[in-house]
Each structure stands twice: as structure tokens, then as C-alpha cells.
From TrEMBL:
Domain Cytosolic arginine sensor for mTORC1 subunit 1/2 ACT-like: 140-222
Domain CASTOR1 N-terminal stretches: 2-32
Gene expressing this chain: CASTOR2
Domain CASTOR ACT per the UniProt entry, residue ranges: 36-103, 224-285
Entry protein name: Cytosolic arginine sensor for mTORC1 subunit 2
Gene Ontology molecular function, alphabetical: identical protein binding
Gene Ontology CC terms, in alphabetical order: cytosol
Domain of life of the organism encoding this protein: Eukaryota
Protein family per UniProt: Belongs to the GATS family.
Amino acid sequence: ICKFFSLTETPEDYTIIVDEEGFKELPQSEHISVADATWLALNVVSGGGNASNSQPIGVTKIAKSVIAPLADHNISVFMLSTYQTDFILVRERDLPMVMHTLSSEFTLLRVVNGETVAAHDLGVTNGFVKPKLVPRPIIHPLSSPSNLFCVTSLDPDTLPSVATLLMDVMFYSGGPKEPGASSEDSSHIRFFSFSLIEGYISLVMDEQTTQRFPNNVLFTSASGELWKMVRIGGQPLGFDECGIVAQISEPLATADIPAYYISTFKFDHALVPEENIQSVIGALRTKSTAQ
């Protein structure tokens, strides 16, 4: 059974993240591009490692303690923020360096057959050079679509009642994948993210799409916050470049602005509270070499 499934639609493509069990279920197809590495999902939990009752930390809170140190050690990450938590995906081959980098600040645990056990340091200490900390200018273009987004969840028990609607939203309601084809407003983009991970469902969608769901099905934060998006990248970013997430998340952490962050196959997406978008764009642009 697939325990880690995420599908994100952008104007360019669908990005699917699945565990090995899920990957075996995917049909062989020349239309599916697969990143060349196997990835491991890390997440940071407060409260002793029991993910079910811990509060999400938020990408802002882990920017300095996790994301920046990994970037400083040239470890490329792929971020997936959900309603419940933030997953930092790292390549399996980078695990020794990841553990070395994070073990001084965190207790590292791994889940084996449903049990949480200590992850033993892989004993790699020789040959690691303390990285030089360098400023991190933003090197990719930024844009902010006009949509307002909601970060929501739903009870898995209610999934059957909205399954048809979900399928329609995910696959049939966008029209052809051409710029501006599905909307009068050229700066309005198609973006929908669905994750079902270890029994928890997370949905990120724009405000219009939430209105298609029945009342009281979607959980949102008590404040009912709406989020604006910053899209990172003009050309496909690829998987090898380090520090893209750090370039964006560090200035947000410094300004104490909460953020969700979703990487996809070609671009990155940061969501920040609606009222902060102008100051966020301003802060990021002052650090940018791409404008």
C-alpha cells in the first residue's frame, strides 16, 4: 500500500511524489519523467517525535536550523509543505552528509515498520570540511500570480463523498494546458496540490476551487487565512542546484513571516499570508540578482 502520495498540478505539468510501493503501481509510460535519484523524506516534529499530536513547525521555523545548513553543505532538497507538516526530501545517497549536518541540533529518528527508533549516525566524520557561510542572493526570477490560495485538509472518512469532485478538480476542470487558456486573467494560474501521507490529507488550492466543495468538509486554520504565492524560476530549476529553498526561506524567517513551500518538477512555490505579499516581494527582490 502506498503510504506517501502527493500530486501537484501547475500550468506546466503534474508532479507526483510516491513511495516505492506507489511507484510500482504507476504504468510504464514514455510520458512520465522520473527524477534520477531515490529520495528520503525528513520532517521535523516537536514533542518527542510523535507526528500525530505534534504541531507543524512551518518552513519559516526550520529555515535556519535545517534548510540553510543543508544548503551550506551543498545538499539539494525538494520541499513539500502540507497542512500537517513540512517534508524535506533529500537524495538517499546524501544521507550520511545529512545526518552529519543535522545530528548536532536534532535527535534523529527513523520509522521502521511503524516503530520510531533512533537513527544511528552512519559513522562518517572524516573528510567533512566546515562550510564557508556565504550570502545567498536570489538568482531566479520571481512572480506572484493573482490567485488567493487556501491550505486545507479533510477527514479521510469524508474522502469517498468528494472523490468525484476531487477527480474533476485535479484532471478535468482546467482546460488545455496553455497560458491563459483557463482564465480571463493572465496572471491567474492553475495550481492544485493533493497529498495523502500516512493517512493525513492535505489540499492546497485557490479560493475559487474551495467554493466547489460542500460546506464543512474542508478544515482550514481557525483564522481562515488566505495565502498568496511567490513562484520561483523562469526556466525549469532541475534537481541538482542547492540553496534555492534557503534563498527564499531565510529572508522570510528573518522577517518572521510564516510560509508553506512546495517544490515541483520544474518550479518552486512559496505561499505567504495575503497581507504580507508586498513586503515579501520587496524583501526578496532586494536580495535578487535575477531582476
